[in-house]
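Incident log, structure service

09:12 report received: a user says their structure output differs between two submissions of the same chain.
09:20 pulled the input from the user's history:
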Amino acid sequence: MPLVITLNNRENKHAYMSKNNPEKQPNYEEAITELENIVRQMESENMPLAQALTAYKRGAELLKVCQQSLSDAEQQVRIVSEDNKLVSFNPGKE
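09:34 re-ran on a clean worker, output below:
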């Protein structure tokens, strides 16, 4: 009989929610924490296939959030390094 995972709502506030969910997008720290929890669960639990697929999709969404946050931070560092002063970074402007 497969083990069904019960999610702790406090730790997995955004667990497996769709990116079309009206809730705000998690910041980097929230996304990385949720991603770590998903990885830990997938490695240690015997998840049913459908739940594992949902977790994988959510993990991919969170990975994109983390990558974008890091990319934005890297761009800010470049701006500071080039001009030797802090300038607000607007990802929509180039």
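09:41 both user submissions now match this output. Likely a transient worker issue. Closing.
09:42 reviewer note: The helical segments are 28-44, 49-83. The longest helix spans residues 49-83.
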